[in-house]
Write a structure and sequence with these properties.
The chain is an all-beta fold and about 120 residues long. About 0% of the residues lie in helices and about 50% in strands. It has strands at about 5, 10, 15-25, 30-40, 45-50, 60, 70-75, 80-85, 90-100, 115-120. The chain has a six-stranded mixed β-sheet, with no helix packed on it. A four-stranded antiparallel β-sheet has the order 1-3-8-7, with no helix packed on it. The mean pLDDT is about 95.
Length: about 120
């Protein structure tokens, strides 16, 4: 059964750090890329980052570039999103999703999301 489970969200102070996890089951990260997305109240769904299955290449939204880092542990079938120096505008529900092959614009099997709140 295909499943994506996000964890690691919570309350973090601006300038702090937080690491989100996306645990995948039922398929292999060797063939599927994983993207992180977020949605804040009243705002549109936004792509945050993606890590490709074939070569591990990464892409980031301009809004998080230089602050967030995506990585993966294929042995654990888990993808991480390290959030450094978060800002209040990073507050959102964060989701991960999969796409077959390299990072693309079409994703399936979304997780349930994890809430991240950046506030002092």
């Amino acid at each position: 059964q295909v499943q994506l489970v996000e964890s690691g969200g919570g309350l973090v102070q601006p300038g702090g750090s937080l690491r989100l996890s996306c645990a995948a089951s039922g398929f292999s990260l060797d063939y599927w890329s994983i993207g992180w997305f977020r949605q804040a109240p009243g705002k549109e769904h936004e792509g945050v980052s993606c890590i490709s299955s074939n070569d591990g290449s990464t892409v980031y939204a301009d809004s998080v570039k230089g602050r967030f880092t995506i990585s993966r542990d294929n042995a654990k079938n888990t993808v991480y999103l390290q959030m450094n120096s978060p800002k209040p505008e990073d507050t959102a529900v964060y989701y991960c999703a999969r796409t077959y092959g390299p990072c693309s614009n079409e994703y399936s099997y979304w997780g349930q999301g994890t809430q991240v709140t950046v506030s002092s």
